Structure prediction request, 648 residues.
Amino acid sequence: MYTIDELREMVKAELEKQEYVGDPYSLYEPIIYMLGDGGKRLRPLLALLAYNLYRDDVEKALKPAIGIEIFHNYTLLHDDVMDDATLRRGRLTVHKKWNSNVAILSGDAAAVTAYKYIEYCDDEYLRRGIDGFNQVAMDVCRGQQYDMEFETRDDVTEEEYLTMIYLKTSVLIAGSLRHGALIAGAPEKDYTALYEFGGYLGQAFQLQDDYLDVYGDVGVFGKNIGGDIVTNKKTYMLIKALELADEATKEELRGWFARRDGNPREKIEAVTRVYDRLHIDELALQKINAYLEKSYAVLDEIQVKPEFKEIFMEVIRELIGRKK
Amino acid sequence: MYTIDELREMVKAELEKQEYVGDPYSLYEPIIYMLGDGGKRLRPLLALLAYNLYRDDVEKALKPAIGIEIFHNYTLLHDDVMDDATLRRGRLTVHKKWNSNVAILSGDAAAVTAYKYIEYCDDEYLRRGIDGFNQVAMDVCRGQQYDMEFETRDDVTEEEYLTMIYLKTSVLIAGSLRHGALIAGAPEKDYTALYEFGGYLGQAFQLQDDYLDVYGDVGVFGKNIGGDIVTNKKTYMLIKALELADEATKEELRGWFARRDGNPREKIEAVTRVYDRLHIDELALQKINAYLEKSYAVLDEIQVKPEFKEIFMEVIRELIGRKK
Prediction:
């Protein structure tokens, strides 16, 4: 099997070919900009890893893999407009660097590009590949719609939140693994198992993100701590706290939400103290571990050489495992 | 062959099934709203007509046909946001009735829905169908990008304009005919000829739209006359006038462009007088007829029963031929 660095290098080289660029260049420039920010390339790597479990000729899976990366970036492009985000990975978002129209239209062009790349596969896998990808793409839209609707609601349940992040985030991670397995001709059982595995992994990954925003080590995490708290973002931490808090604590939390100015440090510390008191950190870690355990259990079912599975898991841990 | 009314009824019934609707309903409601405005259904009808040239079981082509209609409406949804249009076919646009985020995201969901429907075809046609559709979808993005860039330019040439409307409008009309022919198993030559035919037809159609905005009969045309003049829209009429005008006339036109307030009637009359003086009406009619003749010439090449071709042409004339 290839190492993660080798695969990452292949993804990088394939993206750098920019074979999708046509006329006018201005339509494609924001896509190049977006893809050039050095993301982790998690999704194409997962697709290639899944492919590599069954076949050695991973170069055959490179185009679909970067198609998935382009699809992911298209969703980010449109999400950034909808959230009116200013920065992404430390750089101006497309609609801030250019304008909203550029972000909408280049996003649309990126979506078509994604479809073009994803269909690079043997004919026998085409229908299933496109069907699967359509399902993933629609689920991502559904997740984003729920996410936007949750913003104005104060009564989002844990279950609703888990469904939302599943649709918005986990489904694409699951779909990346499934697509890699599909076009490698993996057995039916593995095709299903890798999708399920990716779904659980995605949930663990997103919940870990929520957890690390509060309890992460800024040096390792690479983001400012407390960003979600400052913006009142409805994370697992906040939803769980609102569920478990007594009336007085709820009032306290609502008081902090209402504060738009003032010292962010003070707000972060106060909300974190509420989380501490309610043991939200422990609950989150339990939930993350429960999802990871589920994911490992599903992985046990797939039918590849044990040593392959071992390498695969090691790489997954490296990709996903951001220390607190 | 089916009559146009029968086909229109089938398209309507298929759209009314709303089989694409999922959770949350709020994501799909704007799509239903958009599709419920009683457009002409030109594109699905063209797809069904092309299919019907070769096969009788047009119900097999209904899903791809409405997929094309859904795709068309997705592009309108996003275009309306980009143009900040208030009305479409006499009703509030989606981003005015709801907001921009709703229009962006429901548009994205409509695009995925379109892909899902368009791929309803026998496996042997799938790759080519999806490839063709990707090409059309990308061309529409390219056309919209050119259109937006032309807004801030004063030196758009006739050739550039014709390329832009070809990409933005004609390619989808061409693609509708081609897709219908493809999934009916039409011979290679016809598949190509119908695309070419649709391209010329689309050009004639769009140029006629430009012409009728100035010289149309308001009762028949169904739009207010002079709308393009009031908004300084870069139509064939205006581009041709700027090309042919002497310096004094150009100054006169620019003077009218600069007028944002005042009596629109006065502006429309003055600009129309300039067009009259430069015989833009005749030039436009010549251009429209040239495209129509080209389209008929291509149609002569397709290999179907002559009586089928005759019915087909009659329907096309009925669909396209809006009297002045």
Notes: The first strand of chain A starts at residue 87 and ends at 88.
